[in-house]
């Protein structure tokens, strides 16, 4: 370019320097979305909105929170909750959003699995999504440390101990991560840094990657139909909006997305105002005490399933099973050998696999919360083994699947 | 040709400089995360062993971690097996358990039941006997014994005395 004319308007001035029209076309008015997708596809937008809520409420909490082992607990439970006007609002939004965001992530993931949205050129969408899941987990865990209550302290103790690698006894590594023999000041400071700077930066970058991974292969649809996006877009632009299989992201598709977001926000703020308690562990309202363990240590509900995979086994096999559970979802696009990118309901055995997996993870979640005694540990053990066996079976049952 | 080899050289030279810088900064980053010297130095705790009562668990603190001290009754002392004896500390004819009060499974604090003289870790149901030896998994081994040195009637934690070195060599503790 490098040839500039006197601008006729502010828009024109910007357009010559930022190409706003072209950007809008690529990102919105000529970004094509298939018509036959249902409300489950709005989870991405809901996640973006929830992340925005976390960011804004987090900024307000950051202004009064003190990352010091002596004052952290009171800065949250006294200063923010009692002194700062509307401090309770930011905290409840932050706490509820941190919990609900995982519910939506799981729905988003299982929607992807059900409709085969990780296949045929969409592998990067899946992998970048899983990277986001892992980073969100680290973000949630580091945030959980910050109020420095009993659960914070002991969750920090237990999770960092995992890095000793069972009988490898890498205690030096654990002490290095903590910066001390036990979770203490150095630990709190560095997890604070991770929570408010490094991990959010990584999340923002990964969100960029996740969106970029979606732009070229386009979003999947309810029938797994392969759409010729260019031909359909041409139809749409020529005026045949009814006959075209796609619509423009903005403003057409956005209106539907936003309606789902609207319903979600009503539900979300209902939780924030009336049921915020579910997102706060009662044990965490006791200040951290390194000489007293709470009776039962359990993570927040969204980590329970993987925690339960660790628990019923002896240390080393437990750690291996746990590690397996953390990485295996990444490999889904490669373990699923079937060429069919259609809803699970039309894929025979895979449909069974999908529902068994879903129920198994719910069972694991429930068992993870219950004390590890008697019948509960047996159910937990069976469910953990089922989880592993399901993944081992996946390549075989999908290989046998008939091409549709 | 000449030109491109000159570029190639510059590329390699840059790569070498950047590589050295990257390794050096990784080293600095690793060291920055290490525990501070003040943390490492706050290391020794002295216990007066004559102050403990029989079959009553006391939790002391050493390096921020809980340390269990339990004085055996005559009965408990008499019942020790060889393996349990190896884990116990004898001072002036009295037997003691001195263990790190953190479950060797994932680091919860087990609780002591003086009636059946055993420890239960509520986290995942591990149990230990009164010498800190594991009696039910998931914990992979008995409670760890902190480095100690016997000095008359006192015990110094953080210093490796001959008894401790012996235990380590025999695989009683890590
Ligand atoms: S931490 Fe004690 S049994 Fe797991």
Which CATH first-tier class of the largest domain in chain A would you pick? Mainly Alpha
**CATH architecture label of the largest domain in chain B:** 3-layer Sandwich
Question: From the alpha-carbon coordinates, what is the Rg of chain A to the nearest angstrom?
Answer: 24 Å
- Specify the helix fraction band of chain A: 55-70%
The two chains with the largest interface, and their residue counts, are: A-B, 36 and 27 residues
Largest sheet features of chain B: 4 strands, antiparallel
Cofactor (chain B): [2Fe-2S] cluster
Pfam family, one (chain B): Rieske
Protein name (chain B): Ubiquinol-cytochrome c reductase iron-sulfur subunit
Subcellular location (chain B): Membrane
What features would you highlight for this structure?
A: 404 residues, mainly alpha, Cytochrome Bc1 Complex, Chain C, 16 helices, globular, B: 174 residues, alpha+beta, 2 domains, four-stranded antiparallel beta sheet, 5 helices, 11 strands, 32% helix, elongated, binds FE2/S2 (inorganic) cluster
Please describe the topology of this protein.
The complex is a heterodimer of chains A (404) and B (174).
Chain A (H helix, E strand, L loop, with lengths): L9 H9 L1 H10 L2 E3 L8 H20 L9 H12 L3 H29 L7 H23 L4 H12 L9 H8 L6 H31 L13 H9 L8 E3 H26 L29 H7 L4 H13 L4 H4 L13 H21 L4 H26 L5
Chain B lengths: L1 H32 L3 H5 L3 E4 L9 E5 L2 E7 L2 H5 L3 H6 L1 E3 L2 E7 L10 E3 L4 E4 L4 E4 L4 E3 L11 E4 L2 E4 L4 H8 L5
Antiparallel strand pairs in B: 1-11, 2-3, 3-5, 4-5, 6-7, 7-8, 8-9, 10-11
The structure holds FE2/S2 (inorganic) cluster.
The site of FE2/S2 (inorganic) cluster (FES) has 11 residues of chain B, from loops.
Cofactor (chain B): [2Fe-2S] cluster
Subcellular location (chain B): Membrane
Subunit structure (chain B): The main subunits of complex b-c1 are: cytochrome b, cytochrome c1 and the Rieske protein.
Descriptive account of the structure:
- The complex is a heterodimer of chains A (404) and B (174).
- Chain A is mostly helical and 404 residues long.
- In chain A, 64% of the residues lie in helices and 1% in strands.
- Chain A folds into 2 domains: 27-297, Cytochrome Bc1 Complex, Chain C (Up-down Bundle), CATH 1.20.810; 304-404, no CATH class.
- Chain A has helices at residues 10-18, 20-29, 43-62, 72-83, 87-115, 123-145, 150-161, 171-178, 185-215, 229-237, 249-274, 304-310, 315-327, 332-335, 349-369, 374-399; strands spanning 32-34, 246-248.
- The model of chain A has no long low-confidence stretch (mean pLDDT 92).
- Chain B has 2 domains: 6-34; 40-169, Rieske [2Fe-2S] iron-sulphur domain (Rieske Iron-sulfur Protein, 3-layer Sandwich).
- Chain B has 5 helices and 11 strands; from the N terminus they run H-H-E-E-E-H-H-E-E-E-E-E-E-E-E-H.
- Chain B has helices spanning 2-33, 37-41, 74-78, 82-87, 162-169, and strands at residues 45-48, 58-62, 65-71, 89-91, 94-100, 111-113, 118-121, 126-129, 134-136, 148-151, 154-157.
- In chain B, 31% of the residues are buried.
- Classes of the chains: A mainly alpha (404), B alpha+beta (174).
- Chain A binds chain B through residues 154, 157-158, 161-162, 166-167, 169, 175-182, 184, 186, 190, 290-293, 295-297, 311, 313-316, 318, 371-373, 377, and chain B through 30, 33-36, 39, 59, 61, 63-66, 101, 105-109, 122-125, 137-140, 174.
